[in-house]
Amino acid sequence: MDNFQQPPVNPGVPGYGNPQQEVSPVITVKEWMLTTLIMIIPIVNIIMMFVWAFGEGNPTKKNYFKASLLWAAIVLVIYLIIFIIIIAAAASSNFS
Predict the structure, then answer these.
(1) Most exposed among 19, 46, 57, 64, judged by the fewest C-beta atoms under 10 Å?
(2) pTM score, two decimals?
(3) pLDDT tens digits in sequence order for the chain, 96 residues long
(4) What's the Rg (C-alpha) of the chain?
(5) Residue of 88, 87, 47, 50 whose CA lies nearest to 69
(6) Domain ranges in the chain?
(7) What is the phi-psi region of residue 57: left when phi exceeds 0, alpha when psi lies from -120 to 50, beta otherwise?
């Protein structure tokens, strides 16, 4: 390949010589401030996490809230396991 040839375009690999790669719009500071404000409000924050994760919108924001919901589910499962262990320990100590 001499200095005048273009590198091969590989459409299957994002960012590799693909000039038509779509880029999601930047989320502004104002939008993040509004998002943070909404996340402070109890009950509304849980509903809005689902709306932003599975509704139409910015792919970056969707991925962030999908990850947040996954972390919330993991923490909930850990809390339930700890709660069940504590209840089982308390119940077994009462019958001894």
Answers:
(1) 19
(2) 0.69
(3) 555 666 566 656 555 555 677 788 899 999 999 999 999 999 999 999 999 999 999 999 999 999 999 999 999 999 999 999 999 999 988 765
(4) 24
(5) 50
(6) 1-96
(7) left
| Mean pLDDT, the chain, integer | 86
What is the C-alpha to C-alpha distance for residues 4 and 90, in angstroms, rounded to an integer?
77
62 CA to centre of own chain: 6
- 2: Cβ contacts below 8 Å, ≥ 6 apart: none
Residue whose pair of structure tokens reads 């939008």 in the numeric block: 31
pLDDT score, position 32:
95
**For 2-8, which contacts have Cβ atoms below 8 Å and span 24 or more sequence positions?**
none
Give the span between the Cα atoms of 45 and 30, in whole angstroms.
Answer: 18
